Amino acid sequence: MTQVADAPLVSILDDEPAIRTILASALEDAGFRTMSFARATEFEAALAKTSPDVCLVDLSLPDKDGLTVVHQLALEQGARVIIISGRAEVRDRVTGLELGADDYIIKPFDPSEVVARIRAHLRRDAPTENKADTATFNGWVAHFDRYVLCNEAGIETPFSHAEGEVLRLFLERPKRLISRQSMQETLGGAAGESFDRAMDVRISRLRTKLNEDPKNPKLIKTIYGAGYIFLGDVQWS
Amino acid sequence: MTQVADAPLVSILDDEPAIRTILASALEDAGFRTMSFARATEFEAALAKTSPDVCLVDLSLPDKDGLTVVHQLALEQGARVIIISGRAEVRDRVTGLELGADDYIIKPFDPSEVVARIRAHLRRDAPTENKADTATFNGWVAHFDRYVLCNEAGIETPFSHAEGEVLRLFLERPKRLISRQSMQETLGGAAGESFDRAMDVRISRLRTKLNEDPKNPKLIKTIYGAGYIFLGDVQWS
DNA sequence: CCAGATTCCTACGAATTGTAACAAGGCCCG
DNA sequence: CGGGCCTTGTTACAATTCGTAGGAATCTGG
């Protein structure tokens, strides 16, 4: 497993070698970089040099109380702190979390859950930059963050929220049938029988903005009695 | 228990009334505001108007798959999502977390742990707003200590307290939908229901100071029927 | 080619939002 | 105290969005 230089760094602090090994290998398989320590003093010495993104800390340590470590970590460092402990009492968990831990995992644990939880925590670190909000297709560029549609000449046409919902649905499922019903479920939610014209109109307006020829639509194709298909080579970025 | 206007809002989605009651009372005792729903449709309808800080979601719902709800929540809203489920398998937990949940609590649960976990998650939300009072975004610099907005040319424009509140709210949650109602809750507090156009005016004035083109605003975007989104790459310092 | 169903599209109107103008209140300074 | 100046909510009206209605256009099966 290759390790990218900017892969998140996870620091492991546990006195049992077996646990360290299991965690380290599971995390590295998942693409993280790891550092392992058996004693709090070594762990803290390393912190002075490197700042990990996540710290996994066992509460029972030979040289120091784990909760103290957690508390200092949470206060001083910006790192996420996850306690991994054999102490399963609710009281233990609550105090651990209150002292600054971000999560509390009970031994025995499943490595895949540890990985999933770490990912869930890290996901919050970079909220803005990871979501793909720009799609390119057949000379068009749709900017969902700015609610703007841009053609080959670079002319921008704004689209509304409702139009954007439909467009996004199409761009996420290109070249596949999207039934009228599933479309209403995904969007408005208010699934009334006689209300389904609203969808027609939304699509009609979207077609207009895409300069579709009504007689011969190239992008949004109607499947009579079934739904719609969005043709077009979509690429998100 | 008195509820402060700016206390974090927790939205509960569970089909069992007993669970809802237990959670709601525990959370309100802990100083949170709560909203409870039995069905996903009601829950989602409420989301359109208010944006809670945390959502507690049960996976087994009468009208919709819980995981779908979680996924949409995580993608669209910025809210923390905590699954509370009777399904205890590791596989369930991992998929729940991967679909966007921030935490996964297994039934039966202890309310105090739920509270502790919510607090742990929220603690991460507001690391910036304590000390930083200068934000840089798209050529602008906002100095909240001096109530001054500074453009690329270095020209300073003063802004008022009310405008600063709105601006700060935007800068703390960039590129996320901020619902109209949650905005009024965060700010004015005293909310005349729908007759309160003060918010519109505040935003209009803020737009003017940001030199926004009324026809095509680049920073403060209106989402018809929902709220506003602040685009712009914010950096606090 | 016909009948019936389905879909498109234009126009209209209800709801929502933008903004200019006005008014109420606070503050500073003479 | 009184008069400007700033702030901010309120009101009124303009602009925008988007669902609805209803007839025109299109499709399908026979």
Q: What is the total domain count of chain A?
A: 2
Largest sheet of chain A: 5 strands, parallel
Shape of chain A: elongated
Radius of gyration of chain A: 26 Å
Number of β-strand runs of chain A: 13
Could you explain the architecture of this structure?
Two copies of one chain form a homodimer. By secondary structure, chain A is an alpha/beta fold. Chain A has two domains: 9-123, Rossmann fold (3-Layer(aba) Sandwich); 134-236, Winged helix-like DNA-binding domain superfamily/Winged helix DNA-binding domain (Arc Repressor Mutant, subunit A), CATH 1.10.10.10. Helices cover 37% and strands 22% of the residues of chain A. Chain A is built from eight helices and 13 strands. Chain A has helices spanning 17-29, 40-49, 66-76, 90-98, 111-123, 161-172, 180-186, 197-209, and strands at 9-13, 33-37, 54-58, 80-85, 103-106, 134-137, 140-143, 148-150, 156-158, 177-179, 220-223, 227-230, 234-236. In chain A, the strands form three sheets. Chain A has a five-stranded parallel β-sheet with strand order 2-1-3-4-5, with helices on both faces. In chain A, strands 9-8-7-6-13 form a five-stranded antiparallel β-sheet, with no helix packed on it. Chain A has a three-stranded antiparallel β-sheet with strand order 10-12-11. In chain A, strand 8 (148-150) and strand 9 form a beta hairpin. In chain A, helix 1 (17-29) crosses helix 5 (111-123) and helix 6 (161-172) packs across helix 8. The longest helix of chain A is centred in the N-terminal third of the chain and has 13 residues, at 17-29. Chain A starts with 8 loop residues before the first strand and ends with a strand. The structure holds a DNA duplex (30 and 30 nucleotides).
